[in-house]
């Protein structure tokens, strides 16, 4: 095994081109578990800790360019206003020690259906882009095209995730997750909801509910149509229930040690109804403030 | 490979480090700092918590090669300059927060980090800060007592709450 220690981003890209099987490691919260338990023996490890720009973020006011290695702890502290859904998801990741090291780039690289960042990224909008770099150039991958299967994504072997581009929230966002305790929980299932009043659309994201993180397309379209965006009137019970049913129907869960498929579907409907109530309350408050 | 870094203020070097090795292994087996404990090796238990460049992390999840040129502070580094116990260590002892002791090094480092950031934490703050540190002996009540005691001694040296 080789240990590659690029000092700059360009060096990292060259190293990946020369060692296409190299396993990038940043916070190590997923990668090191695999190495410690002998689940993976890559030909080379590529350390990204020296590449400072990966831990920086910037915004032009309409979107945030989130460096791949910005740790969850800093997303919570620094980005709760522009990226509320992602910041809420970040709060549920592991423990303080894990949140000091783990990052959205790592969540994407691992592409686990249980990754906490994914539902929030999906809900944030179809405009979310994964910025993948290689010596061959830069690709902006739509988030809906990124996930291919269980722990599989669409990155080429020589590509590295430089950043994720996420639209700044234009309305309330929520994230909710089912697990056995508050800390150190791999989601039994998770759900993210974002209201986008600017174009009156709705974003959803389901976690631990299918081979990949996914959105509930029908539920999004139904709710966008059914919400009283103008008046802010609360959605009727039937609308809330139907939204929950459509979210549950979008899932394709399995039975495993963390829960049964039937429980996951049930819980997703509950989370969908709950997050809708939270988001709509916030939306009504915002309407009142601007009125 | 060779890894050179600073541990508790002193330069240390380790040779023949395997590329997939963790910082925890290097600390315990190669540079003579066995205070950090190896329990789960997957970031679940917090027993190996150390400071890396001032930030508490699980040493089992840091690749050894990643600490090249960086600063590590372990539970051994919490002791005073004379080798006496630091205030967090003394509070754990006085409150009876140590039973088998295996989780204690991680709890000490994480508590030290909490009190550095928040000298007077609420009980909710303490629970949140220690949520990644598992103890199977104490039931956590004595640990909560110890953190409150350390907080009172450090922050409330003037006799606050």
Secondary-structure element order of chain B, N to C: EEHEEEHHHH
Question: What amount of the residues of chain B lies in strands?
Answer: 5-15%
SSE class of chain B: alpha+beta
CATH topology of the largest domain in chain B: Ubiquitin-like (UB roll)
Global geometry of chain B:
globular
Structural class of chain A: alpha+beta
Largest interface: A-B, 29 and 28 residues
Number of helices, counting only DSSP H or I runs of 4 residues or more of chain A: 11
Q: What name goes with the CATH superfamily of the largest domain in chain B? A: Beta-grasp domain
- State the low-pLDDT regions of chain A, or none: none
SSE order of chain A in H/E notation? Answer: EHEHEEEHHHHHEEHEEEEEEHHH
Q: Characteristics of this structure?
A:
heterodimer, A: 291 residues, alpha+beta, Enolase-like, domain 1, five-stranded antiparallel beta sheet, three-stranded parallel beta sheet, globular, B: 161 residues, Ubiquitin-like (UB roll), DNA polymerase, domain 1, 2 domains, five-stranded mixed beta sheet, 5 helices, 32% helix
């Amino acid at each position: 095994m080789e240990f590659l220690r690029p000092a700059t981003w360009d060096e990292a890209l060259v190293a990946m081109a020369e060692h296409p099987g190299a396993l990038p490691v940043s916070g190590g919260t997923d990668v090191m578990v695999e190495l410690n338990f002998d689940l993976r023996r890559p030909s080379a490890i590529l350390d990204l800790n020296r590449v400072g720009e990966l831990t920086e973020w910037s915004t032009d006011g309409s979107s945030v360019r989130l460096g791949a290695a910005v740790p969850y702890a800093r997303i919570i502290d620094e980005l709760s206003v522009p990226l509320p859904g992602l910041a809420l998801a970040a709060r549920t990741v592991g423990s303080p020690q894990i949140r000091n090291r783990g990052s959205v780039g790592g969540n994407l690289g691992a592409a686990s259906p249980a990754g906490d960042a994914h539902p929030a990224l999906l809900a944030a909008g179809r405009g979310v882009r994964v910025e993948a770099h290689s010596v061959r150039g830069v690709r902006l991958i739509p988030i809906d095209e990124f996930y291919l299967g269980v722990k599989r994504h669409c990155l080429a072997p020589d590509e590295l995730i430089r950043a994720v581009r996420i639209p700044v929230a234009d309305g309330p966002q929520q994230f909710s997750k089912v697990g056995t305790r508050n800390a150190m929980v791999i989601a039994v299932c998770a759900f993210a909801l974002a209201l986008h009043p600017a174009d009156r659309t709705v974003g959803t994201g389901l976690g631990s509910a299918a081979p990949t993180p996914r959105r509930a397309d029908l539920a999004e379209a139904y709710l966008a149509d059914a919400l009283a965006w103008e008046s802010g009137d609360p959605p009727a019970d039937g609308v809330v229930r139907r939204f929950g049913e459509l979210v549950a129907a979008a899932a394709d869960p399995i039975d495993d040690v963390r829960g049964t498929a039937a429980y996951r579907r049930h819980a997703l409907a509950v989370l969908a109804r709950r997050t809708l109530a939270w988001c709509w309350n916030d939306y009504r408050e915002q309407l009142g403030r601007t009125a | 490979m060779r890894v050179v870094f600073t541990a508790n203020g002193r330069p240390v070097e380790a040779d023949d480090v395997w590329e997939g090795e963790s910082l925890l292994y290097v600390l315990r087996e190669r540079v003579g700092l066995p205070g950090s404990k190896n329990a789960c090796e997957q970031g679940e238990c917090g027993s190996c918590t150390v400071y890396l460049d001032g930030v508490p992390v699980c040493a089992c999840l840091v690749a050894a090669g990643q600490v090249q040129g960086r600063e590590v502070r372990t539970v051994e580094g919490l002791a005073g300059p004379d080798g006496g116990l630091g205030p967090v260590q003394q509070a754990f002892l006085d409150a009876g927060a140590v039973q088998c002791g295996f989780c204690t090094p991680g709890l000490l480092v994480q508590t030290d980090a909490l009190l550095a950031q928040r000298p007077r934490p609420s009980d909710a703050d303490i629970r949140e800060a220690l949520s990644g540190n598992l103890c199977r002996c104490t039931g956590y009540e004595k640990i909560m007592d110890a953190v409150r005691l350390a907080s009172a001694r450090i922050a409330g040296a003037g006799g606050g709450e």
